[in-house]
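__Record contents__

***
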Amino acid sequence: MRKAAVVLLFALLAGACSDPPRRPAFEDARALADAAAAATTSGGSAKFGTDVAVGAVRSKGQGQARFGAGGTAQVMTTDFLGEPAELRLVAGKLYAKVPEGSRDEVGTGKPWVVVAADGTDPFSQVLGTGLTQLAAQNDPAHTLGEIRAAGTIVAAERTSLGGVAAEHYRVELDLARLGTDLPAGLPADAAGRVGGKFPVELWLDEVHRPLQIVLDLSPILQGSEARITTRYSEWGVPVDVQPPPAGEVG
C-alpha cells in the first residue's frame, strides 16, 4: 500500500509539472492573416483542389499554383461551366479555354479567351464574374485578405488534418466590410442586399501554410447549401504555370 501511494504521488507530481498543451499561435485575425500570407509566399507553390456549392453553382476543380511577391499564378481544370474547362491565371490575366462547340459563338474561333469581370466580350459578359471569383477563391491570399480586413477569430485549437499537425481557426467575416469583394457564386450586390456575417474555417500547418479553407455562406444564402472548400497540399512541389500560346488567344 505504501509503495502504491508513493508511485501515485510521483505520478501526480509529474502531471502537475508537465507543460500545458500549446495554444494556437494567433488570437488576432490580422496577425493570423499576415503570418499565413507570408508563409504562403515563402512556400512558393502547391497543389490545390476546390469544391464549390453555392446556390445553383456546383463545381469541383483541381490545379497547381505558384505564389510570390508579384502575385499568384495558377492553372486549373473545373466543371464550373457544366463541362470540363481549363483556366490559367498568369501575370494578372485570366484565360479560359473555350469549349470547341462554343468558339463560333464567342466570335474568335480560337481556343482561348481572356476573361474579365467587366469584359465586354460575350464570354466575359456571361461568365466573367463567376470565373474571376472562382480563380480568386483558389488563391489563399484572397481569403486571407478578407480575414485581415473583416475577420474576428471566434475559436481556435490545435488538431490534425489528414494526419498532419494543424492549427484550426474559426473566423467570423463581416460581409458589409468586404464591399463587392465577394466569394465565388455570390452576386455583386449581395453585400447591399443581405448584410450580416458568415464563418470561415482555416487550417494551417506548423509553419502557418494553409492546408484547408472552408467558407460557409449558408447564413447569406438561407435555405440552400453554400460552402466553398479549398484544400492545399504538396507545398514546394515544382509547378509549370504558363499562359496559353499567344496565337491561340482570341
User: Anything to note?
Assistant: DSSP finds six helices and eleven strands in the chain. The chain has a mean pLDDT of 83. The longest helix spans residues 122-138. The longest strand covers residues 57-68.
